[in-house]
Amino acid sequence: MCYNFKNKTSQSHPATELRIVLIGGRYNDFPSGKSSAGNFILGQNVFNTSRRTAQSEARQQEVFSRRVTVVDTPGWWWTWPRENTPKLDQIEIQNSVHLCPPGPHVFLLVIPVSLYFSQRVKASLKQHLELLNADVFSHTIVLFTAVDPCSDETVESKIRRSPVLQWILQQCGNRKHFLNISNREDRDQVKKLLEKIETLITNNGFRHCSVDRSQGETLRKEMRDLTERASKRFDQVQKQRNKLKLQIEGRLGVTLFEIICNISYSVCG
Q1: pLDDT of 2 strictly over 60
Q2: What is the DSSP string of 137-158?
Q3: Angle, to 10 degrees, between the axis of helix 87-95 and the axis of helix 213-268?
Q4: Cα torsion for 233, 236, 240, 242, to the nearest 10°?
Q5: Least CB-packed of 62, 120, 185, 213 within 10 Å?
Q6: How far is CA 214 from CA 50, 176, 211, 218, 220, in A?
């Protein structure tokens, strides 16, 4: 089903609460822009953009008279299959929907305008979105981002040249928004995005994405188990390193003692 944002509007009756989950990938040293987009939407630097997002985090601010919750998530490698994504990252992505109870109203699929989309990106996206609810696409808006000045026509031109982007937009009911995060003063970009989210909520019958509460506890247990096992492995490695260090220092000490003795013997001799 294709939703037309122009048919319905919620500007006169804005929602009092909006729950947003940011999803997307990364490519080599190219940042995904999810954290920056989250900061832009909330109007505060609440997400750390100096490092990759290792775990899902929820932050909340009042934005245009709405209580907006944004959940940032770990990004997967755009061109890698899901099996190459660390298990803990996969669990964190799954757990993101449990950080904004009773469930997210919308997923914002963050795509940098300058990123090239191949068929491998398409396959990776499908696999990683399977970590979330089956109806994730019906709750998704594609959020194109740019850190340099960029026009709407540039975005449209990129879409026309990319079959993969066209497929993604088709899955998401052609819902999209462009956010020029280089222009932090232009809050009208955010206002229009929130209005599109409200229209999506209306078209979805005011239903948020369904969340299995029992899954949340299972995921938290998996995270605890993985963290504990990782901590034990780290302790074992540290003990082995310390043992090796002592052995090396001991051997160096013996060698140094032998050298001193030999020198002394030669001098005395």
Answers
A1: no
A2: GGGEEEEEEESS---HHHHHHH
A3: 150
A4: 110
A5: 185
A6: 34, 32, 9, 7, 10
Burial class (CB in 10 A: 0-12, 13-18, 19+), 185: exposed
pLDDT at 196 > cutoff 70 = yes
User: How far out from the chain centre does Cα 22 lie?
Assistant: 6
Q: What separation, in Å, do the N-terminal and C-terminal C-alpha atoms of the chain show? A: 98
For the CA atoms of 243, 246, 252, 258, what is the dihedral angle to 10 degrees? -110
Cβ(200)–Cβ(3) below 8 Å? yes
Which structure tokens are listed for 81? 């299959």
The length of the chain in residues reads: 269
Q: How far is it, in rounded angstroms, from Cα 197 to Cα 23?
A: 15
Q: How far apart are alpha carbons 178 and 176 in whole angstroms?
A: 7
Assess if CATH 3.90.79.10 describes domain 17-211. no
What are the structural domain ranges in the chain?
17-211, 214-269
Cβ pair 14, 198 in contact under 8 A: yes
Residue 6: the pLDDT is 42
Which tens digits make up the pLDDT trace of 105-148?
A: 999 999 998 888 889 999 999 999 999 977 899 999 999 998 88
